């Protein structure tokens, strides 16, 4: 009886694992298309930023946070869905155009791209430790210790949220 | 033993033993679960340790970019660009044959190396040097020298002391940019050193991978403004909605024979630029630039009546100059159009005017239109440029020149650009028998790359 229960539970676990993997994949896919939250170090005194300001910040134009610091933009890794979605929505550039843009900027002597952090988990751990740091992650990944900024007056999930 | 009893006992043992077995199985499962849990915990601890280590390393790296500690020192970054070209002039008259080489020539046009570093959170430095093959090639071209393969009559007179003092080719280095920059605020940044004059589009976008055509328009290289200056530049910008507005102010030695490190007059040159950039229906950039300076050449002369044993300096040539320029650039999707126009006035000091030189005004402009096709990053383009030199023998014996160019720019990768073009120059008001008496055609191809 116990064996049956054990087998049943095993089968259930395996089934749940398979289902979970499938559902999880679905969730992951859904997350890939989910809203992007712009997050900052909690000491950054602003609660809102515009898409235009974000563009300037992530094009490495010196931009003040309002608290005596300048923004330190941190990018997601190139090739990730969230990076490509952010570049497309904020910089209005696809991955190839972003690469060309930074090659051209280097030759002009006009700065370098924000540092790319290998993964969102690391990004969210670094953010609270760097004054003026600003980054973006999937809204579903936001954790404690960071502040989510409204974009053009809207927060992730609001109708008309631009990211 | 009665078999039934045996079976009963066996059954009883089995029944009795089954819970034990199941217990044993449960124990085994629990043990397995415990091991898995321990493993998971260990893995989680390993992951945490790895993540922490990565976090600390990244933090140190980001902090060092932001503020370099004294014992660490800034990290220097090297990068640059280069280009390889093939060019052919299609010559139309004897004067052109004499002045230009009609054979197809291969050459390395630019080899520019950049070195930059973040010194602190607010101080950055940029150095850009260009390596050239010259001065080789500048010697007397009339001296025969092909009989001896070790002697090149166009070689600069230098001997290789490590190789029996045979003549050696040696190149030069041009310091294009050397400056330190301080960022106080987005509205106030300052750089001192040698910087590219902030005027127009392609004086600063001077790298061959960035320039759409095979070379800059002729008028941009004609020195309406100094290409680079030594002195101080202050600049900044601010955003307002979808627009950004910016300015540049410059103070420098101005133009002169030794302007990189000296000034033969006390009048510093001043310049400025205002610009705006907006993203509405497409992206538009526009700017206006100005420059005022006094260019002076000084010589020394011994005056026996002065009573001094030292020669005295006197102004040999001198002029005041004013330049203005306007530029506009518009990009909508794959469509790109840009234009620049510049004017330059030169007024000679009557006491230091070269023979026959009149005050003059030059004017030049160009327009470029390009469209990136949806295949292979192919971008055909067309450029039309007009240059009025302001005097009758301004360019090859003509006063005006109109150049039409058709070309193809292929961004093979973000770092590699291939270009090909054919340009025709038409001269106006030309003096008969000069280079400008007939049209000139130039075919160019160039492979440029950023590294």
Polypeptide structure, described:
The complex is a heterodimer of chains A (163) and B (451). Chain A is an alpha/beta fold and 163 residues long. Chain A has 2 domains: 1-33; 36-151, D-Maltodextrin-Binding Protein, domain 2. Helices cover 44% and strands 17% of the residues of chain A. Chain A has helices at residues 2-32, 51-58, 81-91, 95-108, 120-126; strands at residues 36-41, 48-49, 72-76, 115-117, 133-138, 146-151. Chain A is globular. Chain B has 451 residues and is of the alpha+beta class. Chain B has a domain at 76-88 and 106-138 and 169-365: Beta Barrel (Porin), CATH 2.40.160. Chain B is 16% helix and 49% strand. Chain B has a 16-stranded antiparallel β-barrel. A two-stranded antiparallel ribbon of chain B has the order 4-5. Chain B is globular, with a radius of gyration of 35 Å. The chains are: A alpha/beta (163), B alpha+beta (451). The A-B interface holds A 2-3, 6, 50, 52-53, 55-56, 61-64, 70, 72, 74, 92, 96, 99-100, 102-104, 106-109, 112, 115, 117-118, 121-122, 125-126, 129-130 and B 22, 25-26, 29, 51, 54-55, 58-59, 61-63, 65-66, 77, 79, 81, 114, 116, 126, 128, 177, 183, 185-186, 189, 196, 204-205, 207, 209-210, 237, 239, 241-242, 244, 279, 411, 414-415, 450.
